[in-house]
Amino acid sequence: MLNFVLRRKAQLIRISDDGKKAFYLDEENSVEIMSFLRSESANLKKFNTSLELILNHRAPRDLYDKENFEKGCEHVTAIKLFKGKKNPRIYCQQYTDGETERFVIIGIELLEKKKSQKLTSVEKSIIRRVSKFEYDLTPKP
Q1: Residue 73 is inside which H or E element, if any?
Q2: Fewer CB within 10 Å, N side or C side of the chain?
Q3: Are β-strands 103-111 and 64-66 bridged in parallel, bridged antiparallel, or unpaired?
Q4: Extended strands (E) in 16-70
Q5: 52: Cα separation from own chain's centroid
Q6: Which of 49, 53, 27, 20 is nearest to 140 (CA)?
Q7: Quick check: 92 and 109 in contact, CB under 8 A?
Q8: Which residues lie closer than 8 Å to 82 by C-beta, 6 or more apart?
Q9: Nearby residues of 5 by Cβ (< 8 Å), 6 or more positions away
Q10: Which sequence spans correspond to the domains of the chain?
Q11: How far are the Cα atoms of 12, 67, 93, 94 from residue 73, in angstroms, in the given order?
Q12: Which residues, at least 6 apart from 40, have a Cβ–Cβ distance to it below 8 Å?
């Protein structure tokens, strides 16, 4: 099996208060993710609250956690916006950026409704896909 890397661009959304963490959105999927977040005011409010907790080192595991179910997916995480309701997820990558030494989280792919407690083949395929991307990080315009 060929192990190829897909290079993509990510746009800076927010930096933590201490400057040590940054959240980016995948440019190819940002319109879909932001449209979903803006579709209901509760979505955007929960996302902004979640981002604040994640960036300032206070996110509980039921809000933001690793999705590490197999080798190669160790750096994939999920922002879990409304557990128990529609249960939307934003699948992310996290790593330390070599240039800035900043801990980077990139929101990559949206799953509007997670239907079961266990990871289904749909979620596993998203996680595997998300794990293969590499990013060029662009600052806010």
Answers
A1: none
A2: N
A3: unpaired
A4: 21-26, 64-66
A5: 14
A6: 27
A7: no
A8: 46, 88
A9: 132, 133, 134
A10: 6-136
A11: 23, 7, 9, 11
A12: none
**pLDDT tens-digit readout, 6-35:** 789 999 999 999 999 999 999 999 999 999
- Both tokens of 106, joined, read 């990139």
> Which residues, 6+ apart, have CB-to-CB distance to 42 below 8 Å?
none
pLDDT at 114 (0 to 100): 86
Distance, in Å, from the CA atom of 65 to the CA atom of 112, rounded to the nearest integer, reads 17
**Two tokens, residue 59:** 């996110």
Q: Which are the contacts of 90, defined by CB distance < 8 A and separation ≥ 6?
A: 33, 47, 78, 79, 81, 107, 108, 109, 110, 111
